[in-house]
Amino acid sequence: MDDRVVKPSVDREVEEEFDHHVEMMVRDLVDNGWDEDEARAEAGRRVGNVERWKADTRAEGRRRDGDANRRLWWDELRQDLRYGVRQIRRAPTFAAVVILTLGIAIGANTAVFSVVDAVLLQPLPVTEPDRLSMIWTRYLPISGFDIEKFALSGPEALDIADETRTLEAMALFTTGTLTFTGDGAAPERVNVGFASATYSETMGVPPAQGRWFDASEDIADGPEVVVLSHGLWMNRFGGDPETIGQVVLMNGTSTEVIGIMPVGFDLPSDARAWQPLRITRESQGGRGGHGIAAVGRLAPGMSQDDLDAELAVFRDRWAAEYEHNVGHYAWSQGLYDEIVAGAPERLRLLVAAVALVLLVACANVANLLLTRAERRRTEVAVRRTLGAGRSRITRQLATESMVLAALSAVLGTGLAWAGLEALIRIDPTALPRLDEVRLDGTVMGFVVGVTGVTTLLFGIVPAYIAGKRASGTLASAESRSSGGRRRTSLRRLLVGSEVAVSLVVVVLAALVVRSFGALVGTDPRMDPSDVLTFALSLPSATYPEREDLVGGYEEVLDALGSLPGVESVAATTNLPFTGTGQWDFQLDDRPPRQEGEVAWNAGISHISGDYFATLGIPILEGRTFGSEDREDGPLVVIVSESMARRYWPGESVIGRRMGYEMAEDSVPWMTVVGLVPDPVTGSLDREPYPHVYVPHAQGGISTYFLPSTMQIALRTTVEPESVVPSVRSRIADFDADLPLYAVSTMTDVMAASYAGPRVTTNLLGAFGVIALVLAAVGIYGVISYSVAGRTREIGVRVALGAERREITRLVLGEGIRPVAVGVAVGLALAWFATRLVEAMLYQVEPTDPATFVTVPLLLMAVGFAASLLPARRATRIAPTEALREE
Amino acid sequence: MGRSEKKLLHGTLDTLVLKTLSHGERHGYAIARWIEQETDEAILVEEGSLYPALYRLEKKDLLQSRWGVSELDRRAKFYALTDRGRQALDESTAEWLRFSDAVRSILAPGS
Predict the structure, then answer these.
(1) Do B67 and A4 touch (CB under 8 A)?
(2) Does the global pTM surpass 0.80?
(3) Are B47 and A4 an interchain contact pair (Cβ–Cβ within 8 Å)?
(4) CB distance B55–A47 less than 8 Å?
(5) In the CATH hierarchy, which fold is given to the domain comprising B3-104?
């Protein structure tokens, strides 16, 4: 009887069906008077090629069963999904905690990944970027400097360009900012790449229209030409196809537009136009005049190592030929590493931290699911009794997890999107290429992948365990006491690991936050409040002579100084917190520097107006510059403290003389008239370095040139931003073609100097907080559950006279133990993990004692607090209620 | 008339099988016999077409089958229409009538 119910395999089904068919045929024939044997033979004839028919039928049968299985699978999935959604709706708090936990973790990972994707993984806008290398120079301490990476000088760059065999093309370039006018629209400052004729070819990016400049234009006094970026062309010319051949003004010089680059090409450094570099061996500064960047395209079959080997040959030759090149040589770096330089370290740290947060989230959710699975043992057992297979139950629970994960992924994507929008809005320059960050297909793929892995981590394992456990009977499920120990220890293990991983994240975050605190807390050695700054550039076309330029700036300062709300004004070539060049100088009270002796050099600023008062820099000794320090007056200089300490330790600096060797044996001596603190150059974590200030009016006389671009600073008695409109109109009255640019408060200039570390710090800080909260939730969940499971035991203890305090201690002890183990393990892990941040720390040791004491205590406190609530609940358990529980 | 000349138009066999089963469940042999008898053996059903067709109709969820005991007192597979099968039969009957009307109006106008 049984095999009439059981469905046979397709093979047997077909066999049996054909047999029956033939038997029926035989019976009909016999009924019609055939002899049994003849009937059988006739039936065989009529059926014909029976094996082929059977094969056809079997094939159809298999297709039929495949379809049916698929249908069944989909039906079950639909069922599971419906069931899962119902379960989630039945326990909204549980679902909310899970979705929030995972959503935040997935969101954080997605945001970080999309940054990594844009910064590191997206291709650069050049052809075969892996074949491009930048060439830099290095100064070893023996040279007097200790600089890892510095620009080339013209002769050095040309030496390499003329003779290289490993590079098939090489181009030199510098960057600058020019005023773009002449097309009728408002003047605009644009970043310009000054590049050699080979630049377009080297980059492998030909102009989209027109042409790149050629060698005949890349020579001194060659025709003035410019290639525009696609963006500038669209903005200024509306994409007019007739733009090529038009004449525009670059800093007031008539210049012909000869080409337009393709969309997206903006190298170097956000260039919006390109002009010939026009460098020669005789260009200013000679072998020591560093300021040239070089990029080369490796010839086919050549590698970065080949290039470095070739540069080593130059190094040895140069060292033998030029005193300048002792301990100072060229080296190369792949363009890719170049563009993202500085970022990978911070990004690696963020990726590591955010992945750890995801792990903590998974452990947490796995714990919650395990706890929930416990509560649902009866339900699972009932389903099992009603005939659900073990794998079916596992699959069903896994589906539930997937529904949760999918909802988390949706939330996470939303959070990532919002977070990135905020990040880009707050500070688009915090990371290189940050403006290219977006949630695209790759990122969505990452979300799907990370969600899948997450589901596997937090969902599948508990589902498997639950399914396995489902082999138990209904009766055993009803009894709470059976088999709890192993599951409890699994949960404790999860809590322990969670605490350990959280501790690592929090330690990393704490170190970086402390380091950032130290950075921001560094004395800026000036007063940045109530100072407005902007840049101004007086073009040589309108201000050709030195008196025009010096006088022009004096007039500008006078005009601005009389504005209401303005206390004092000044101009400088470089504001604090921005970079500066360093020049070698001579001292007249000692013989010229000998070979091998540490070089005498200092940063230099040309200043005008009431500079020190405006920027809140105290005069420590002597005086500031006055109206007598003009072109025809005695040459004067003000030096910084490090300068004084290094060259005249313990003595007064006033009256000392220093100068720049403008020509062979010709040093116009400047007399030191004042002493001020060292300015912060670049960023606050830089060691203070010698610096000198010279009057702008004496620029080009005591120094190599008279600067034509100056940063203007105004100390205001009102909100600095509030004077911007009156400043603009005053400048426009002075010269309508002058653009005001880089308008900012000094506070913002200072903040911009640590924008990168700030983003890293904020993100890491956020990850640390998330990890802490997750750990707290995890500990709370486990202890609560454990208390709920031990209601009876606690009730009995209370009935037997245990004091509340004892109960509290019992529960707290149980909560704290896995936390303590986790903290211990986490400390060991953190000890190694801090290597990740070592290079980024400022005035904080990677094994900072305060951090390594505070963070474990913090986590213990969190564990304690998270256990306290369930502990207090336990003390309120009434013995009678406890006994009813079972 | 040879068997080959009585080959069924493509798709017609499916409709005939559905029609046969509209009178109640039958096993494969009975389906073939019924069609042959109803058409006075004008249409002979080949086993090589019938059984694949039955499995295919099962796959399309137009038929369902169960194992039962036949008049030979042997285990046999019985086919019955599903709701979708009944619907499909109505549709293809209507289709077929439209088609044959159209053919008749050309071949024997006015009849």
Answers:
(1) yes
(2) no
(3) no
(4) no
(5) Arc Repressor Mutant, subunit A (1.10.10)
